[in-house]
């Protein structure tokens, strides 16, 4: 690399007179500054480790305890009840140390042990307090006395000014549900999807599993839960993400859209500079742990921040059996046209095609084999290493995307497809960050949404542009120039593009920007916005396919240490009964009553999922244990093979304080989306923005004759109108369901 040669600190030549040594002052200066930066980072990490390690106490509290103990000693009282004297007797000190000095040292040692004991006690108390979840099941505005006391205690034991990871040691471990409860909830979830004979057969399989093999598998799972911080996360990452063998370009990636109605600058490089500048500002705050810990908005309840550790500087490399995660450096790779550059400069597509990619475009096994054969040495290996070790990958797209032209809806659909897969050769699907393509990878979408929203806000409202649309500030001409990465592409590698293009061409996408009403009107009907949308999706799917299906709604378990996600099975007997009643022409009063029942059931399932009593992660782990033991379970095998024909997820809205939706309503994003999970199903991501807009990202496959993203979008629009008309205030009855206090995600 040319910049590597430029960075050499000295050169020497051998002459008859000896060695002629030539030093580079600029290179030595850079080496010195690099060392200073490295030590600053180490000191910051050490300081943060100490602060986090003693939380909820503070390092200064140690001095307070020492002074308090010494003060009581000088009043001739012994707060240690003889322990200081015992320490002094066994203190290995020099004979030259006076008795008074030995007493002081002993008191300091006792104070330190007392301080550590207090920290352990406070952390244990906080952990027990955070294990209390009954508050989530109470009706809004009707907080019990127990919960009020609990809130006060949490505030007391939570400490002051926590860093990003301060609460990690105080979060409770994810509990293991009983096999009986999980099997019972599972059977309830499949009842509306099966006829009597199918349900009877599944009940028999479940009963046999519960009474025999289930207890054996549960024992091993409980043993793991005692040993590990989270009995799900490591297996979920290993077997769902790293061992998945299908291409992730459409099957697993997600994306996020830029502002729809404003273009901060028409200059591509300027938008790139500001956006990535904001991106690195966020990364610096993250590395210094200056970001406030995530909490359930409106509460004092902290959420796990473990996923923040892997948002940046990681890449996943393919293997024939399993992939692996590797750390990356801080240079940047940029793709412009058909050329890839290795650079420390920063450029970006001007419409901010931002998302996270951590996958390969092609099937994992062939790509792993091709990588070993064609990218294991030579120029290909050097170029691939530069990409995989980059901090992130930037794509400069040639085509303008967004809400454009005479048909803005069609342009949004094309925009979504471009974000997800691009041209199938202009995305680095292995780097942890690619500005142009990215569903759930190993990083939670919530964390990416937080970073994405921070970047958008910082770019427009803090950094800004000058009158010509350029970045503010002066150009640093001392930066090394970009270097072109060269490749030797074998014909069989080029053929892989055909596979990726066929996968991308099969994807049908539709973005529905619903502006007729939003969560404001829904909440006036005393209904959870999330439950409202889920009921609308059930109604739309039934109208579209004349049947019900297994429905996946992503929930989270970040109330627990290393918590990730859980599944809410939104298709229930209650929701099915409501849809059938509405479609069957039942009286409005009957339909409203059934809707309330279905909404309450959905809320209950969401609460259970958040508090560790979900169905699917428990069954998944039981299945993994059965594979380790080499035993077959017909029940688990059938459960894990059921397709999710309707996969849904709400894009979270975080850091609302960064945006002024009243004075600047045009600065809004359309959210993001992902591909369908099943070949004959739909993927639906929805973004509840403000009080008057809900955006839907709908995906399916052209190859399935029973799915059509645009037709399903039309059914969703009609279902939303039908439900709000049913629940309109003029016909509203007193709600039987109070909004729960856990409505943090839905109410934002």
UniProtKB/TrEMBL annotation:
Membrane-spanning parts: 50-74, 103-126
Listed GO CC annotations: membrane; mitochondrion
Domain Choline/carnitine acyltransferase: 174-331, 364-717
Keywords associated with the record: Acyltransferase, Fatty acid metabolism, Lipid metabolism, Membrane, Transferase, Transmembrane, Transmembrane helix
Catalytic residues (UniProt): 440 (proton acceptor)
Domain Carnitine O-palmitoyltransferase N-terminal as annotated: residue spans: 1-47
GO molecular function term, any single one: carnitine O-palmitoyltransferase activity
Subcellular location, record wording: Membrane
Short name of any one Pfam family annotated for the protein: Carn_acyltransf
Gene Ontology process terms (BP): carnitine metabolic process; fatty acid beta-oxidation
InterPro entries referenced in this protein's UniProt entry, alphabetically: Carn_acyl_trans, CAT-like_dom_sf, Cho/carn_acyl_trans, Cho/carn_acyl_trans_2, CPT_N
UniProt topology in membrane: Multi-pass membrane protein
Family, as annotated: Belongs to the carnitine/choline acetyltransferase family.
Protein name as it appears in the record: Carnitine O-palmitoyltransferase
Provenance organism: Scophthalmus maximus (Turbot)
